[in-house]
Amino acid sequence: MDKDVKNPNDSEKSKQLENYEIDYTDKPLTTRQGLKVNDTNNSLKAGERGPTLLEDFLLREKIHNFDHERIPERIVHARGSAAHGYFELYKSIEQYSKAGIFTDTSRKTPVFTRFSTVAGSKGSTDLARDVRGFAVKFYTEEGNWDLVGNNMPVFFIQDAMKFPDLIHSVKPEPHREIPQAASAHDTFYDFVSLTTETMHNHIWVMSDRGLPRSYRMMEGFGIHTFRLINKEGKAHFVKFHWKPKLGVHSVTWDEAVKISGADSDFHRRDLWNAIDTGSYPEWELGIQVVAEEDEHKFDFDLLDATKLIPEEMVPVEIIGKMVLNRNPENFFAETEQVAFLPGNIVPGIDFTNDPLLQGRLFSYRDTQLSRLGSHNFHQIPINRPVAPVYNNQRDGHMQMEIHKGRTAYFPNTIGGGCPYLSKVEDGGFESYQEKIDAHKIRNRSESFADHFSQPALFYRSLAPWEKEHVISAYSFELGKCEIQAIKSRMLYIISKIDKDMAAKVADNLGMDIPDTVEKPLNQAIGADAEVSKHQPKEKKVYLEASKKLSQDHTVFDTIETRQVAVLVADGFSMSDFEKVEKTVKDQGGLIKIIAPHGGTVTCDQNMEHEVNAAIMTTESVLFDAVFIPGGKKSVETLLSKAKFSKFVKEAYKHCKAIAVANEGEQLLADLKEQDVSKDKAIFINKDSEAFCKAIAQHRNWDRMPSAEKIAV
Ligand code: HDD
Predict the structure, then answer these.
(1) Model-level pTM?
(2) Which superfamily does 556-707 belong to?
(3) Could you tell me if the CB of 114 is within 6 A of ligand 1?
(4) Which residue among 218, 306, 634, 661 has the highest number of C-beta atoms inside a 10 angstrom radius?
(5) Catalytic residue numbers, as ranges
């Protein structure tokens, strides 16, 4: 982790934001007009028990503000959390791009990054099975560049025209506003089963990628193919990747459900705490570059956002890193008011004709008007670029600037021709001169019509434990649907991805996979009837498996910020505790003492230790590993409180590392039916190094069959 940035305020953006920050220390309470207030508890009345007077401007001002405190939440991605940081370039890629951010290695470009779920509303759980948003605003010297991506490399649909339909189908059903932050319902599966282009992104959501352990442990993707333009005006196609230093890790569905109850702010808290304690999250930025002349050499279309380029075909070149090192001062002012626009680009980066991207270029600016209420939203501190802004755009709601002079038009002589235009060589933006010679049509290219090869590639690339999770997820989601015909259609469709997988799901649903499905009426699928008529297309196998698609090949060499629950009561063995504590802390892990009560707990050496959580306020699912030191009295107390045994059983069920020392072993009594002595993540009086290695492995998935049998 990068801890060398002692003063996160060393960026231009931080300085700019500081000008807007208000420090309340030692300040008197005033009205909005600056009038000092001497009573903010009582309204002005005619007599102590009399009616309130209309004259009471203090009451009216206070209530008026309160009445308008809320703004509309984001239509999608309403639930989110963000942080400040910086981006640094390892090496110039001037051969591809002339952007300052990609050529100047001496720069530390400020960023503001917001992570989110898609479907849930602002107060919904962080642990919904969903895509996660991964939006980065780079405050570059040449203007803001927003890379508004997700934690999955593909999207549900190919054309922006379908976005409202997709979102309407996944959001709570309109007649009864159910379910919240969940795709497991009829309308969603009605839509996706009629729109097979969704199948690739959908299987990613069914996989562990839909349930990240932490925002800090997920990848990010720009998804679309963009263009990089170099100084000579030559273009290359590019896909952007964010690779987390901590690797890609997830929780299980059972944990997600329980975390949603125990701490629905789990991801938000995790991000905040990591930054607050100096464990700054880091991602490396990678690019996949494709020469323009190679555009058509793939079995899929680079403009189709439902396709990825396997890393085996085009390797990811790592070019820089992002570090998040500062929490926002104020959630509303920064995280809520930040407005990401895929249309914010800088010279050296450009769009392609991806029809999903093209639609986004309209949608994001448009939506800010409803959300932030004024087209001057770019003047809100968090949205201001660090590059200076001069133009002839004027006035409107909430104009914050005082524009001087007589002219607000171009060309002019009265204003000396200013603000003047910049030549391309002086940094003036010029769109890439792509040659277009085409008919104006409403149609989908045939090159977009393969909906099954890549979901099948994804599934083939997964480890057996990941496949099991996908099968469970499909079974749960379809099991929640009520309309048989929809489930049946889905079973048919997923059988075209993988027959065995579909058979297991069908078994769980108590249904058969149909040999064919009734073709939906053309009126149900509209202009897509032509494409759907030919679905499923013959699958292509251009690669047997792609290693990087599986979480089995991620980072397993660090326990940085992993939370180890230590279960103790008065009288616990200090010598047992000390050994594990030291090794875990030395490797960057966190020790959390869980005791029968809050306050402090006393070890067998009569020392008092601060309790991090009383057992009744916490749950096993909030931790990455468990350690139980010995100490007769301590263990007796733990055994007398059933929640401690449940804690351990649950950690076992979720395949986590468990270490016990001496009498602590008695807490494994409930697991005696399982062969814990052969379990590679259970340590009975073993050295703490091995325990830490197992924590770094994230989970012992080999345990899955026996873990299934544990009831908690
Ligand atoms: Fe979107 C928000 C990501 C397609 C319309 N989108 C939004 C956010 C993320 C994404 C991360 C939240 C940004 C934040 O934190 O404020 N969206 C994506 C990705 C897409 C995508 C990766 C496909 C590759 N989106 C997409 C389409 C449309 C939209 C096709 C409309 C045609 N998205 C919106 C929006 C939102 C938004 C309605 C809601 C709030 C906002 O923009 O600011 O305009």
Answers:
(1) 0.96
(2) Class I glutamine amidotransferase (GATase) domain (3.40.50.880)
(3) yes
(4) 634
(5) 77, 150
